[in-house]
Design brief:
The complex is a heterodimer of chains A (347) and B (76).
Chain A (H helix, E strand, L loop, with lengths): L5 E5 L4 H11 L4 E8 L7 H5 L1 H4 L6 H9 L3 E5 L1 H9 L12 H19 L3 E3 L16 H7 L6 E2 L11 H4 L17 H10 L17 H14 L6 H6 L4 E6 L2 E5 L3 H8 L6 E5 L6 E6 L5 H11 L9 E6 L5 E6 L14
Parallel strand pairs in A: 1-2, 1-4, 2-3, 4-5
Antiparallel strand pairs in A: 6-7, 7-9, 8-9, 8-10, 10-11
Helix pairs in contact in A: 6-7
Chain B lengths: L2 E6 L6 H11 L6 E6 L4 H12 L2 E8 L2 E7 L4
Parallel strand pairs in B: 1-2
Antiparallel strand pairs in B: 2-4, 3-4
Classes of the chains: A alpha/beta (347), B alpha+beta (76).
Bound molecules: iron/sulfur cluster (SF4).
The site of iron/sulfur cluster has 11 residues of chain A, from helix 6.
Chain lengths: 347, 76
């Protein structure tokens, strides 16, 4: 009996990667999962921030998938290296700022490095031909295999029958006959297979696995770059884009305003880095001010903060402004009225 | 056998899990790692990660907003 072959499965936490790994596990291959954390992942934390979501049991879907499969899962921080993928995608962006094709190439390349280091034999992904407009077409699937350097060590069990034979198939490590021929955008075959395997409650992300596919998120990210005059970001920047209302009343500053307690508490963690405002005479949000302020701007910021407090209809609201040098100013302001906030201020 | 601390306060999931995983990779069987975190999600994620890797969660202590999870490294 030959020693069992080993495969690394890219686990996003969605149904496709779960099924792909299961199909290979069932062929007697030793499978371990890899999950990449880019900072843009929809996973987990954003649900933990908003209070209304806190009551819901929260789970990391990739870990949940690993538990269902009974495999190890390695969660890998690629935040730094991933920046180049987002900032300079060779193949360009999808509908929003999602560089899906470059992202896939990058992740498979990281997986290839991982299997070389760990002595694994091949890589599996849950890609389905024709499912995504750009990154999962018949002509782009080979691009991923080639540019990542994985070449024929990359196996897509869910659509393998449509693709040329890969090394694990040729060597008989897996039986090609028992691989699948899923194609197109319909989810029915996946759902049927999940049922056959007895999987329930799996995650079904709509659109994509990360915030970069979200139009509003992408708009906030472009705004950040144009306000800074350069395309770059840190983890804190992209986390903050997931939270609160973002308004840019002036080109040189924007405000991030908590929408409820959970977000306010999250924003509190950034108080030292930003000038921040809180209403004193009425209950209200915590607002961070990002950028430079000129004469009159602090007053405007205070009026905006007051607008989102319980004193929105009051004649005067007392607002405390804490600057980053440790000073505290108090202003009495009249809250801005809804109609005084042009819609283009909202990012 | 040694006991180590990991400060993962103010990190959002999955960062506490990632940092714990990186630490544990350098530890020996029998070593203990205490992870201190503030994201309530870690209470689910770190034990789930330990289950799939075969490590043992010895205890979870919650004090105000801080959660400490003690893990014993096992032969995974
Ligand atoms: S949706 Fe996001 S994580 Fe998924 S392939 Fe596209 S860029 Fe990558």
């Amino acid at each position: 009996m030959n020693k069992p072959r080993k495969a690394a499965a890219l686990i996003s936490g969605g149904l496709d990667s779960l099924l792909a790994a299961k199909v290979i596990l069932d062929q007697g291959v030793h499978v371990e999962g890899i999950n990449f954390f880019t900072g843009f992942c929809v996973e987990g934390h954003t649900h933990a921030i908003r209070k209304k979501d806190r009551a819901r049991p929260k789970r990391n879907n990739a870990l949940w998938v690993a538990e269902q499969l009974g495999i190890k899962l390695h969660i890998i921080d690629i935040i730094e290296e991933y920046k180049d993928v987002v900032l300079n995608p060779k193949h360009g962006y999808g509908a929003n700022l999602n560089p899906c094709l470059d992202c896939k190439v990058f992740m498979v390349r990281k997986a290839q490095e991982w299997i070389e280091r760990k002595g694994f034999d091949f890589i599996i992904t849950g890609e389905v031909m024709g499912q995504r407009p750009k990154s999962q077409r018949k002509d782009t699937l080979p691009v991923i295999a080639h540019e990542s350097g994985a070449e024929d060590r990359l196996l897509r069990p869910l659509c393998a029958q449509y693709l040329p034979e890969t090394l694990p198939e040729r060597e008989g490590w897996v039986d090609r006959e028992r691989l699948l021929a899923f194609e197109g955008r319909s989810r029915k075959p996946q759902i049927a297979l999940a049922e056959q395997f007895g999987f329930e409650e799996y995650a079904q992300p709509a659109g994509g696995c990360c915030f970069l596919t979200d139009a509003q998120y992408s708009r906030k990210l472009s705004d950040l770059w144009s306000a800074r005059g350069e395309r770059r970001y840190e983890l804190d920047d992209i986390m903050l884009l997931k939270v609160g209302r973002h308004l840019r009343p002036r080109p040189h500053f924007k405000m991030i305003i908590g929408r409820e307690d959970g977000e306010n508490r999250f924003l509190e963690g950034y108080r030292k880095q930003f000038t921040h405002l809180v209403t004193r005479s009425h209950n209200g949000p915590l607002a961070l001010l990002d950028g430079q302020t000129a004469e009159g701007d602090l007053n405007l910021a205070a009026q905006i903060t007051a607008r989102f407090s319980q004193g929105r209809d009051a004649e005067s609201v007392s607002v405390e402004i804490h600057t980053t040098d440790g000073a505290t100013l108090t202003r009495q302001v009249k809250p801005l009225r809804g109609e005084d906030i042009p819609s283009h201020w909202y990012l | 056998m040694s006991e180590l601390q990991l400060d993962a306060r103010c990190m959002l999931c999955p960062m506490p899990v990632i940092r714990a995983q990186e630490k544990i990779e350098q530890l020996q069987v029998g070593d203990i790692l205490s992870v201190c975190c503030t994201d309530p999600g870690a209470v689910h994620d770190i034990p789930a990660w330990c289950r799939v890797h075969g490590h043992t969660v010895l205890e979870i202590v919650q004090q105000e907003d801080e959660i400490t999870i003690r893990i014993e490294v096992r032969d995974a």
